[in-house]
Amino acid sequence: MSGGWPGFDEDLMARQGPPAGPVSRSAHPAARYDFGVAYPDPDSLPLEQLVECLREELQRAGRSLAHYPHPLGYPPLREWLAARLAATRGFSVDADDILLGSGSNEPNFLVAQALIDPGDVVLAEEFTYAGTLGFLRRFGADVRAVQCDTDGMLPDSLEYQVQAAVDEGRRPKAVYTIPTFQNPLGFVASLPRRAEVTEISARYGVPVWEDDCYVDLNFDHPDLPPAIRSLDDSGRTIYVASFSKNIAPGMRLGYVTAAPALMDRICAIKGTGGVSQFTAMAVHRFAQTGLDAHIEQARNRLRAKRDALQAALATHLGDRACWTQPLGGLFLFVQMLDGTDTVAAAERAASRGVRFAPGTHTAADGVSGRDRMRLCYGWNRPDEMAAAIAELAAALQPELAAVTG
Amino acid sequence: MSGGWPGFDEDLMARQGPPAGPVSRSAHPAARYDFGVAYPDPDSLPLEQLVECLREELQRAGRSLAHYPHPLGYPPLREWLAARLAATRGFSVDADDILLGSGSNEPNFLVAQALIDPGDVVLAEEFTYAGTLGFLRRFGADVRAVQCDTDGMLPDSLEYQVQAAVDEGRRPKAVYTIPTFQNPLGFVASLPRRAEVTEISARYGVPVWEDDCYVDLNFDHPDLPPAIRSLDDSGRTIYVASFSKNIAPGMRLGYVTAAPALMDRICAIKGTGGVSQFTAMAVHRFAQTGLDAHIEQARNRLRAKRDALQAALATHLGDRACWTQPLGGLFLFVQMLDGTDTVAAAERAASRGVRFAPGTHTAADGVSGRDRMRLCYGWNRPDEMAAAIAELAAALQPELAAVTG
């Protein structure tokens, strides 16, 4: 699959260590029904607003385009983020403790590069974001899975994995977690669960690397807990998030904040001259003006898409599978109950115009999840879901024939 | 000086290998008269045009913002670049042979990362762009200087350095050159000189790494030669350029094209998800519409600034120094003839509100050029040049007193 998915940084996941062969540089293949990548709804991009916001910000501060950007990124946007994080995620940082990057991918890449030496142990949710898994493997990490339930990482499993690594003389370098609308499992880790994770992290001195990039996509959760970062007084927690999911991936704008020593190291190894000021200026103004209304609209659209997808699954996969019931975010995780091999099915689905990620693509151990599928519901329209899942079910059908004889 | 210059990627030059200490993350210090960094004229940024161009492109193609960008970068812009290079620099590449990056810095960084193992020999003009020098050193290159005259690299010196390295069993990995409006020396390498460099490169199998990012800033040269790339049939030449100098550094948009094997390697190691689509879309439309008129205006402004700077130097430094007579580009290189130490003078100049790069900052060997200064004339207004150089001359004065007793 990696050959056809160059828009998919997650392809790096498929390669343990530096790639041996050429990377496909061909364009993203058109998939009629794309459940594969976390695109937002293309019809609801706030394009005209972004243009107006760019104009307004340029009028105010356009001369700064003549400068090379501040190495941490456009200061007004970092100031906005600092205030936003304090107001919504429960922790305070200075604007100068924040580094802007290209989406959340670049910050995650830099954290991986800064933290990991080959052989270092990193813990992650048993199914997680393949892009970061790819970066971890690229830097030679030994990624170990933490079991989860619908409330998040299981503390016993986390502690077990930490202790096991410590017993080997290899205290984990970090615990990578997506506690809010986890990709792909969809859970929101509860506040008590976050506190337990924080406690284990503190007790063993293993930093939490918190990826919060779906936090704004809340359409049904009544009361999101604060960030894990807010529960940690030590400053050890690494916090990464992005505007890719609440505005658009094409903006390539995300951020990271962590302890000064790690931030210094990240800044030192960062090889580029800072994110596009042009983009950061538009995003800053949009953040101040239209972002929240846009998020509200996006949430309503996503709720409708999730509902339509769940209805379509019930209709076409019925009792062959079960699936998560996410209260926000972009992902629904399906588990086949009839022995269907989703890796094999993915090829057949692609020929039917349906794209999705098999569970193996998201597995911390690289191999689990042949019975699972990650479906991103951000792209397809609600009225397309039924047809899309009908095609998917048909693609899964040969497996059913094989199993039932 | 590195502490105060975080906007200056070139600070990496000051560190041989990975930095040992914290990197300053403080904001760019205000310098009343800034000859330090290659900013364009802040009053001539095409801000309103960029906004309109963004709007037009979004109307045409805005839905693509919902996608993660093509890993090579926005295809229409690469198609435009392929046509532009064929029309103006004399060589043909496919759009898919081009990778967009964050300014020219990111492409140069990736080329360095892809090519260089610690200890590898890389040849460069005796004074050159400090940003790339920093990347070369960071990856452990052994950078060796090639002597130049006003016509570019001296072929005898180039061949000497190549042969010397070969005799050590260490054929150079590349020759890094800025043949058009060289930073800081200002020369435009003639066509015969480019052909000689190409011949030596071919004969020894040492690729030319051509950085052409000042090529559009031609205000007085009657007939720019084609790119070195155009003289090389082997495809060995690496070609990097950027929109930082013809639009604005804040856009962070540049590109590289090289042989397929090197492009594949660069794409494989590139850790981020592609340049901001948002920016690339605006730049694409602007390239199709207003870019050439903007370049024409910029050229006229730069000519006036260069003229004013040269007049101010004649007035205030007179026979204490000599300086280059660039026909384009952004830089003028001053050589003090009275023993003035420009590294020491830089501190005094900073306290007088004047910022510049001592020659040592640009030296391939890291130490030459204590008698030289690089003055970038892009930022200060023509009517400021006299006052600026008066301050500079005064800052240089204590040295004169020290020398003449």
Give a topology summary.
Two copies of one chain form a homodimer.
Chain A: E1 33-34, H1 47-61, H2 75-88, E2 98-101, H3 105-115, E3 121-125, H4 130-138, E4 142-146, E5 148-149, E6 152-153, H5 155-167, E7 174-177, H6 191-204, E8 208-211, E9 238-242, E10 254-257, H7 260-269, H8 277-288, H9 291-316, E11 321-323, E12 331-336, H10 342-351, E13 354-355, E14 357-358, E15 372-376, H11 385-404
Parallel strand pairs in A: 1-13, 3-4, 3-7, 7-8, 8-9
Antiparallel strand pairs in A: 2-10, 5-6, 9-10, 11-12, 12-15, 14-15
Helix pairs in contact in A: 1-8, 3-4, 3-7, 5-6, 9-11, 10-11
Please provide a written account of the structure.
The structure is a homodimer of 405-residue chains. Chain A is of the alpha/beta class and 405 residues long. Helices cover 38% and strands 14% of the residues of chain A. In chain A, the strands form four sheets. In chain A, strands 2-10-9-8-7-3-4 form a seven-stranded mixed sheet, with helices on both faces. A four-stranded antiparallel sheet of chain A has the order 11-12-15-14. In chain A, strands 1-13 form a two-stranded parallel ribbon. Chain A starts with 32 loop residues before the first strand and ends with a helix. At the A-B interface, helix 1, helix 3, helix 7 and helix 8 of A face helix 1, helix 3, helix 7 and helix 8 of B.
